[in-house]
Amino acid sequence: MALSLCPWVALVVLVVPVQGRLGTAFTEVISVENGGPWGDWGDAEFCPDNTYATGFQLKVEPHRGFFRDDTALNGIRLLCSTGMATANEGPRGSWSYPLSCGHSQRLVSFRLRVEAPRGLWDDTAANNLEVTCSDGTVLEGQGGPAGVWGNRSASCPFGWGICGLQTRVEPPQRGGDDTGLNDVKFFCCI
Question: Where is the secretion signal located (predicted)?
C-alpha cells in the first residue's frame, strides 16, 4: 500500500496553494542550490492575475574598482504579459535593458551566476541571471561577471509558466561588506 501512495505524496510536495494573486492559485516553486548565504527572504510578488512572465530586467551595480565595495546584482523585475512584478531589492545599481521571450512564450526555468564567499575579500554573491523561455530560447541578463553559473532549475510543468518571484537580499551593512541580492525562487502557475 505504501508504494501506491508515493506518487501522491510527491504531487502534494510539488504543487502547493499560494496566496498572492486574487484568491489562491496553484503554484510550483523552482529554485537553485548555488544562491548566496546572506540576507533575508522578502515577500513573494506575482504578475497580475492570469498572466505570466514573458521577460525580465536586472538591477545591477557595475564594478566600482579594486578598493570599493561591490554588490553586483541588486534586483530582478519580471515583465509580465500585462504589468510587472518586482520583489525585494537592494539599493544600488540601475535597471538593465529588458529581455523578453518571443510572441506567446513565457519564462519556464533559470540559473544564477553566483560568487562563493571569499572570506576577507569583497563578496558580491549573485551576479547574473539566465532564463529559458517555453520555446527553448535562453536569455542571459546583463549582470556582473564574477562567480560561476550554477545548475539550471527544474522547469515549470508543461503549459505552466513563471508568474512570481521571491528574493533573498542582504540589507546595507553600514561600513561592512555589502552583497545585495543573494538568491531567488520563482513560482510557476498554471
Answer: 1-20
Burial of 162 by CB count in 10 Å (0-12 exposed, 13-18 middle, 19+ buried)?
Answer: buried
As separate numbers, helices (DSSP H) first and strands (DSSP E) second, the chain gives: 1, 15
With cell 542550490, the residue in question is: 33
pTM, to two decimals: 0.82
> Cα separation of 185 and 173, whole Å?
23
Q: What is the DSSP string of 82-135?
A: SSEEE-S--SSSEEPPPEE-STT--EEEEEEEEPPP-TTSPP--EEEEEEEETT
Q: What would the pLDDT profile of 18-39 be if each residue is shown by its tens digit?
A: 444 444 456 899 999 998 888 8
3-state helix, strand, coil in the chain (%, to 5): 5, 40, 50
Residue 54 has phi, psi (to 5 degrees) of -110, -5
Widest distance between CA atoms in the chain: 63
Q: Are 150 and 32 in contact (CB under 8 A)?
A: yes
